[in-house]
Serine acetyltransferase (Corynebacterium lizhenjunii), 187 residues
Amino acid sequence: MNLISMIREDLANAREHDPAARGDVENAIVYSGLHAIWAHRAAHALWKRGLKGPARILAQATRFLTGVEIHPGATIGRRFFIDHGMGIVIGETAEIGDDVMLYHGVTLGGQVLTQTKRHPTIEDGVTIGAGAKVLGPITIGAGSAVGANAVVTKDVPAQHIAVGIPAKSRPRNPDERVKLVDPDYYI
Ligand SMILES: CC(C)(COP(=O)(O)OP(=O)(O)OC[C@H]1O[C@@H](n2cnc3c(N)ncnc32)[C@H](O)[C@@H]1OP(=O)(O)O)[C@@H](O)C(=O)NCCC(=O)NCCS
């Protein structure tokens, strides 16, 4: 995918996810979440080419500007959306699929200090609510949601909702299989 197509896709995704979103030009200027993911893609490309120092410096500068800290080693799919930005931490070995959405204050963190896969895998179509902490090399299954302020330390199956501390999972009801952020709910 070329750069222009990727930027267009991200802007369309921002419009779809945020009922407050207006024009693309305005969104490209004001959305810290977009700035963070665009900078991450550049930092990740540097990281993969072995330019780890510059990648870390770019990630740190982005953190300073956006409040979103994404390690350049993290793997992130398409149409990733961060609403509100600020206070997000995504660790080095985190793997994020397509169509994932995070609210502010989410941590995808590790629990050990060894150089192993130590951060979560977030499958396609997952939404993680504000302030949630997802810790360790666990998997949040496709289409699941993590509630605001949950602390998740165990796998969550696909199409489940996990809430609480420690988080407990329950199957998502069929009528909940719509996007949690459908603008129709707000209009
Ligand atoms: C977890 C979540 C996805 C559940 O949505 P839902 O299935 O529609 O759940 P409901 O609102 O019907 O609530 C079901 C029950 O779970 C409880 N619950 C909902 N969210 C919860 C949460 N984050 N933590 C603990 N309990 C929660 C409700 O109080 C309710 O309890 P009850 O059955 O005792 O009344 C949603 O509540 C959530 O946390 N979304 C994140 C949104 C967010 O972060 N927004 C930030 C915008 S700035």
